[in-house]
Amino acid sequence: MSDLSSRVDRVLAQVATAASSVGRCPEDVTVVAVSKTVDREAVDAAVALGLRHFGENRVQDASRKFVEPLPPGSALHMIGHLQSNKAKSAAAVFDAIESVDRASLIEALEKAAHACGAPLSVLLQVNIAREVQKAGCHPDEAPQLMDRLVQSPWLLPRGLMTMAPLVDDPEEVRPVFASLRLLRDRLQRQCPEFDLATLSMGMSNDFHVAIAEGATSVRIGRAIFGE
Ligand SMILES: *Cc1c(COP(=O)(O)O)cnc(C)c1O
Q1: What number does the ligand 1 atom closest to the CA of 207 have?
Q2: What's the pLDDT score for residue 2?
Q3: How far apart are CA 218 and CA 215, in angstroms?
Q4: 189 Cβ neighbours under 8 A, 6+ residues apart
Q5: pLDDT over 70, % of the chain
Q6: Would the pLDDT of 1 be above 70?
């Protein structure tokens, strides 16, 4: 069995264990394989192993890597900082933008999706830990930005995304994941007409904790594609 195949098996087993241990269904957690460090060949090998969701953090890399689109039923997620002037290319190549964090970007994405003629799924990225220089809006800005998102006919808000601080013991960031879920619950009450079910949180080092705290989507790079 190849290294990729055994790593994918291990990650899927760990996702299933983490979900079951808190009484959740493993199928309710989407694994987004973060392919930012690997070429298309590795992506295709992961597709052959059954993975369907991929994450990239640069528009230019993704546009090159996915000239040949993924098979039907797959999705490409933008998970990195997005400059407003790249919104058009991003809307053309990605199925979902997880890194929406400011009003100017919302405006640019709205125009881009309108130009493409297809509504675009988005997540609001929140800097829950309030780290300096970290992507994501301040938690206090989230209600206003979500209000702006739900008013857009071309953007479909699906929930929230966060990146927890890098720590040695993933238990340390459990409160970060719990806070994102509480914030989502509040925003869901604020916008009952939208389904904000998605919580994209957890990476290679902390996804089991994120799943225990309600993650519906985990973004896993190194544990799948190697260091
Ligand atoms: C790179 C990246 C990941 C994946 O991180 P790993 O530690 O390799 O699993 C997840 N989310 C974002 C936003 C990233 O940039």
Answers
A1: 9
A2: 80
A3: 7
A4: none
A5: 100
A6: no
